[in-house]
Amino acid sequence: MDRPTPLVPLRYVDIGGRGPEDVVADSRGRVITGVEDGRILRIDGLADSAKARVEVLAETGGRPLGLELLPDGALLVCDAELGLLRVDLSDGVVRILADSVLGEPLRFCSNVVALSDGSVCFTVSSRRYALDQWIGDLVEHTGTGRLLRLAPGSETPEVLLEGLQFANGLALSADESFLVVAETGACRLTRYRLTGAKAGRAEPFVENLPGMPDNLWRGGPDGPIWVSLAGPRIPPLALLHRANPAVRSTAARIAVRAPFRPTGTIGALAVDDTGATVHHLARRRSGFRMVTSVCQAAGQLVLGSLWERGIAVCEPPVPK
């Protein structure tokens, strides 16, 4: 992969809530995110952090993670505690679309996309670990992540793909012929075919990423898929993944009890529908840590984080 260009921070915007895990942009350049206490927030005025306005749109009562704006102005929410939600942003009404799959409570939903046929696809990171123990799944390498689909009018999701290593971000190709799934635990992007002769099959899309991919975001079919890199690759972790299950399980029990502090290395990629890298941005010794999402809003690059109490606004990359 090409040498990265610098990820240049411009300003930090305190949003009054911890852990804006996913950030998405609306048509007016405002950023929507969800925070640890269950609130869905909208941030306007990114050009001046002192004048930025933060508005509470809704409260899920759980822990919102991945978001997807719908054409009708509503918001799809992957809630780690409640399942897949739909939020009416005009009045804040929250409706549960699905809270179980195959008789199992739907927990740790991560990212979601809506298709033009009305169906919704979304990921589940782990069936073994909850959000507050996410590091345990990465250490144990459980491979219990899933890709699910909810058909229009249905309340029961179907399993499209399982055995994923911490399934996370999700994006749709420009022609809706395939989905791209981020596997955080494997440092790769996987393609799942929706149409054509290979429909229903999964294959590598981008492997050996320079860090651990988290949420994916696409502003429109003409734009690239943005990939947030929550942390750098960790060689000792890759070695541990080759150990037997008992060793990994023991290591995971230790990891979930140990203090965690993210590194100062952050990054973001943009890839096209062939898997080619359009942009690779990185920064070492960053004060803003654990970048779990990235989007473009108001002509700038906006970063979200499971760790921070705000969002970072960065200089956009130079078009190639």
TrEMBL record:
<keyword id="KW-0597">Phosphoprotein</keyword>
<dbReference type="InterPro" id="IPR011042">
    <property type="entry name" value="6-blade_b-propeller_TolB-like"/>
</dbReference>
<protein>
    <submittedName>
        <fullName>Sugar lactone lactonase YvrE</fullName>
    </submittedName>
</protein>
<comment type="similarity">
    <text>Belongs to the strictosidine synthase family.</text>
</comment>
<dbReference type="Pfam" id="PF20067">
    <property type="entry name" value="SSL_N"/>
</dbReference>
<dbReference type="Pfam" id="PF03088">
    <property type="entry name" value="Str_synth"/>
</dbReference>
<dbReference type="InterPro" id="IPR018119">
    <property type="entry name" value="Strictosidine_synth_cons-reg"/>
</dbReference>
<feature type="domain" description="Strictosidine synthase conserved region">
    <location>
        <begin position="116"/>
        <end position="194"/>
    </location>
</feature>
<keyword id="KW-0325">Glycoprotein</keyword>
